[in-house]
Amino acid sequence: MYYQTLTTKMFSLATTRRMMLARRNYCYASSFHASAAGKRKTSSSSSSFSALNNDNDENNVVVLVEDDDYDDDARRESSSSSSSSNNTNNNGHIVLVDGMSFLFRAFYGFQARSDATKLINSKGEDVGVLHAYAHAMCALLESKPSHFAVCFDSKGKTFRHEMFVDYKANRPPTPEALIALIPKVSELVEAMAIETVKVSGVEADDIIGTLATRSVTEKGFKVSIASPDKDFCQLLNENVRMLRPGGGGQFSAFTLREFAKTHEELIQPEQFVDFLALVGDSSDNVPGVEGVGPKTARKLLNKYANVDAILEAAKNGEDEFEKLGTKKVREALKSEKGQKSAQLSRKLVEIRTKLAAPDVNGDLDAFRVTTPDDYGRKAMDCFERYELPSAADRWKAIHNIIL
């Protein structure tokens, strides 16, 4: 059983009643100017946060509803309870969030909207991205993980740029308006009593890879990686899954089962890094090997298991090789350029799982979800400052806080 995509029509009666009361009672909910009557159509480019853009509409929430099997396993792994946490799956399940990916999705989703449908507070500030981000974090927290962390990329170049100067060089510059939101998002997340992690010279992928690996091997946790980034497929196993944001503000699980369907049961998640090494990754400007497409890559990996074995077979002229790929593909893999490109690409796409940085090697219980020491005052101050009433009510309900 897995997380299921759910429409708001399937909300439980209790959840619906809570949200109705929250909307009626929150004292500054009327301060927004951006509400529009009725449902509004949005373009497909409005991202998975399109359902969050009207703060006064109960339908505008991120929904993540859980089939219990995954976390039932986590609960069984630890029967101990914690007085400082309101979770039911103690010590069993950690959610690791790819922080910047959510910021980009929210930013570009709201940027595509007309001025009439943006979320503007009483001070004239556009708070749509903060609203979307807060609701996304609440949706993930509502799955009742015992541990939770948002991981951010560090500023500037990383060790991958040192390996390949053109790494991500095809991307346009990050908009200044988005950069200006980073400290605000960090402030909001920290105010919500969520731990954040950033390591100098390292991407969030590697932070998540290291924390996920440690969580499983050292603690026996179940791990959910919240990200749309396909690179995380290489980390999937029976204890690690992805939660992908989708249309309408919904999350869906991507597990071993979904991976097998996507790749026609020809490759395993641990081969995904080899798959990308062959086909490349245009989003990160990873070259791969010219002429090798997904279908051929899967067939080759199904027979030869990894990139090194494929390159060796191409050089040695095995008779079976050309049955799996064309002569042109074989020549590309046999060439010096193809061999170097495949090997370099593999290094670029491989997520590190053993970072030595202290920030990812401390006590994992630092990421435990707990009721804030100040009983939510810092969070409420932040929500009030930006005027995010529905997010405030949703966050209070998660922590059983009444203010």
UniProtKB/TrEMBL annotation:
Record's keyword terms, sorted: DNA-binding, Hydrolase, Nuclease
All copies of domain 5'-3' exonuclease, residue ranges: 92-370
Top-level taxon in the UniProt lineage: Eukaryota
Cross-referenced Pfam families: 5_3_exonuc, 5_3_exonuc_N
Signal sequence extent: none
Gene Ontology molecular function: any one: 5'-flap endonuclease activity
SUPFAM superfamilies, alphabetized: 5' to 3' exonuclease, C-terminal subdomain (SSF47807), PIN domain-like (SSF88723)
Keyword Hydrolase carried by entry: yes
CDD domains cross-referenced by the UniProt entry: H3TH_53EXO (cd09898), PIN_53EXO (cd09859)
GO BP annotation list: DNA replication, Okazaki fragment processing
Keyword DNA-binding attributed: yes
Gene3D superfamilies with a match to the protein in the record: 5' to 3' exonuclease, C-terminal subdomain, 5'-nuclease
Protein name: DNA polymerase I
Originating organism: Bathycoccus prasinos
